[in-house]
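Narrative of activities, Objective 1.

The group set out to show that a structural description can be obtained from nothing but a protein's sequence at a throughput compatible with the screening campaign. Below is one input-output pair from the validation batch, recorded exactly as produced.
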Amino acid sequence: MLRNYLKIALRNLSKRKGFTLLNIFGLAIGMTCCLLILQYVNYERSFDKFHEDAERIARLRIDNYNEGKLLWKSATVYPAFAPTMKKEFPEIEEAGRLIDANILLTNEARNIKFNEQKGYFADPSILKIFTIPMVKGNSATALNAPEKIMLSESYAKKYFADENPLGKILKVGGMGNPRAFEVSGVFKDYPKNSHLIIDYLVSYSTLGKVLKERGDTENATETAWGWYDFYTYFKLRPDATIAQVQAKMQSLCDRYINSKRDPKSNRRTEAYLMPMTDIHLYANFNQEAEVNGNGQAVSWLFLIAFFILAIAWTNYINLATARSLERAKEVGVRKVMGALREQLVGQFMMESLILNLSALVLSFTIAYFAMPSFSNFLEQQITFNFSNNIGFWLIMLLVFVGGTFLSGMYPAFVMSGVKPIIVLKGIMPRLTGGVSMRRVLIVSQFSASIALIIGTIVVYQQINYMRNQKLGVDIAQTLVLEGASSVQDSLFQSSFKPFKNDILKLNGAENITLSSTVPGDEVYWTNGARWIRKPKEFNTTMYIMSMDYDFVPAYDMKMVAGRAFSEKFGEDQHRKNILLNESAVKALGIENAQKAINEKVVVGGDTVNVIGVMADFHQESLKRAVNPMVARINLQNGGFHSIKLKTADVSKTLGEVQGLWNRYFPNDPFNYFFLDKHFDRQYKSDILFGKVFGFFAMLAIFVACLGLLGLSSYNVLQRTKEIGVRKVLGASISSIVVLLSKDFLKLVLIASLIAFPLAWGVMNQWLQDFASRINIQWWVFLIAGISALIIALITISFQSIKAALMNPVKSLKTE
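Output recorded for this entry:
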């Protein structure tokens, strides 16, 4: 029986090769899109799952409130959390902390030095929580004492080439007094699919030693409940859950933090545990280690994959039911010969199976060869490898079996229901249900396609809006140099002043300024602040940056009240004067910018004078709201040197700047970046989402058009005689084209009316994640609707014009 089904199915499919290939090609494109998107989704959801006990690892975060209003959510917490929770919560097996270790590393023997930023001071227990395979050294002792450093394999090669680095010394700058770190271990390069980038780890006790040398008498790295710069991870016992620990967190926060504050202050801290495997897609808090992904975007792409597949299956259903009249006599004869309806259903299901199987094989072939290009397109290291992924194979089995069943069942029941006595009399049945279903499916296809067009336009509009919106600060033509870590603060100006003077003599340089941060970087330095006229319990969080006299004019920042820092005013250099931004004025409760001038503000315990108010500017991406900021003067070693360029010959100026740097700061590497590109990196995940969304939206429309092409071809085929008669009676080519096209175009119009409100609702919800966002304009819907109509018209017209130009004598003779 199956053999006969197979033979007849192959015969029927080969009879109409064009439509068979059209079906296979459409299904293959749909399945290929599904495969590629699943690869991307699988990669995004694989982050941090390489740890052996990933499901037992969680990261702590805190939320801070003032008078019931959320001030901030931070990915970093106070260092005292880890030892306290390890001691008091039996559910916790291990607790470990990481804090940024931005240092200057030098191998004097090989004259190699680099400013490094992708490493951390780490508790020894981190090696028990994370899976970090050791290549050299002992994980039990690698971080157990001050001034020890572990390097990744790549970094070991970077600093020591092919030498064995164990026991070797790296000189360290950027931590006050010059230091020497012993290389205590080498670990395998940390996987890319992690929310952390770890190139080196420095023993946590090193940080405590440095602070003690600077006067810390309270062991702050273990006991502080106010310094929130520590990424804190916990490994739970096998029988414990995050919910069990979370239930105890508020009580702990109240005992150690909230109860210690002035009851009148109305400040409150709350702490939450987050599964480590959720961080990449669902964590977007202050002080994230890296720019994370977007879980909502990944979910939408996952749905788009099945949208495209559904459109491809719809094509098959439409084309199969459209052929029902052509195959009616075949069904009638087979019924007369004794074929049961179940046998006819089985026959049509076999055809569906062959088509879906052929498309699946073709899609795997296409996806395999397209994967390198797709990976480059995404700028990700994605490989086509699902050999051990049971979930993927279950999804693909479901897709194949479900697709075969869904796309084959309806045509099978429609065509097997034909009454043989009617068709054998030469009367072609009018399958009203089949026609209605095809119309519904066409409307569904184009509703999805139009919604995707609208989504693509809105995504690109939002991304362009964020990238092109005025920031309130000029980042164009800005070369940023990372600061000189090796120079002591007391000696810095003696090197910087002549360096600055020589920079300003260059034809390509316009200005140079020092600052603790630059636009595009998150500000980690915060302090509590209050307007002195407010009660002591009134306190709000301010984000602090330091700058020299030239920062405001160099970045073309607008002062809405008062003045900027200036060398003309001697009191500025004594750090008793500050600048606020407009958001800070509002947060402090001062009525307006003008009234803020010469007011006293307490910042971190210091009473300072407000001399100017800067217009709000976007320190970070437009996805985030503008934070209240305080600017303080700093003429010592800043974190960054910003050079404003005024020439098109950037490479020449860059070479001249490097020469001056090497002369004045010979012990520091020349590290630089261009600020516009640095700022744009914040939009990496959004740009990637826009590219992927747009690419697959276009493919979805293409697949829908393939189906429309096939249907219009069958429509022309079935109306060949009618077209011939109309031409004989004098019908023009344009009237025939309109006749053959109007029914399809009406369906596209209906699809537009359905798609518009759906797309508006979905995209408006997506936009809510952005602090600064566009309003969806009416013309977006108009463009999407017109585009769909034009695409549909071009697709249909190909067959319609061909039919209209046909010789009527030939068509009537054929009929």
